[in-house]
Amino acid sequence: MASLRKELKIRTIFNLLGPLVNPLQPTGQVLGVCDCTLVDKFAQALCQLGLHRAIVVHGREQLDEAGLADVNDLAIISEGKVNAIALSAQDLGINPAPTSALKGGNVQENAQILKEVLQGGGTQAQRDVVALNAALAFFVGEAIPGESNIETFSKGVSLAQIILSSGEPWKKLEQLAQFLSN
Predict the structure, then answer these.
(1) Measured between alpha carbons, how far apart are the two ends of the chain, in Å?
(2) Is 87 helix (H, G, I), strand (E, B) or coil?
């Protein structure tokens, strides 16, 4: 199914349904949507699925994740309630950057970018967008205490930046790959 979606080169209903029918039934989730009109709808769906904590995110630069160039629309689900907020990189002390600063290339180029960022390298924009999205995941996973506000997400960004700078994420990815190959 994934190869068919890639071949079509357009988004389909399966891009939207996949995260909602996760057989693992997570208690938390960060879910990106490509259209701002879907943020609240997906938040309500996640509430009905009984997720303890989740975030639905749409980057206004037409991203299905948080971006650096424009405001990000978030619907934050916590204990059955939805709180909608708009969040920009600047709100968290991150310098804005155009989407073009994040553009990858072919599979090999993207793999190299990923490796560099997870080893503490890459461009500032690449590290910042990873830190921003990691902060959302940290909140959902309760790795950072607090309410869904700028201060909490700022702490998450700082934590992600420290972790990325250490190069440890790459080591963990290598350990996971080794574990899966055995």
Answers:
(1) 26
(2) strand
C-alpha distances in Å from residue 87, one per residue of 84, 177, 179, 182: 10, 34, 37, 42
Q: What token pair was written down for 114?
A: 């990923």
Task: Report the run of H or E that residue 102 belongs to, with start and end.
Answer: none
Tell me how far apart the alpha carbons of residues 129 and 136 are, in angstroms, rounded to a whole number: 11
- How would you class 2 by CB atoms within 10 Å of its CB: exposed for 0-12, middle for 13-18, buried for 19 or more? exposed
Q: What is the pLDDT of residues 70-122, one digit of tens each?
A: 999 999 999 889 999 999 999 999 999 999 999 999 999 999 999 999 999 99
Positive or negative torsion for Cα 160, 161, 166, 169: positive
The domain ranges of the chain are 2-181
- DSSP letters spanning 22-49: -TT--SEEEEE-SSGGGHHHHHHHHHHT
- The CATH architecture assigned to 2-181 reads 3-Layer(aba) Sandwich (3.40)
At 110-162, the pLDDT tens digits run: 999 999 999 999 999 999 999 999 999 999 999 998 888 889 999 999 999 99
- pTM equals 0.89
For residue 177, what is the enclosing H or E element?
helix 168-181
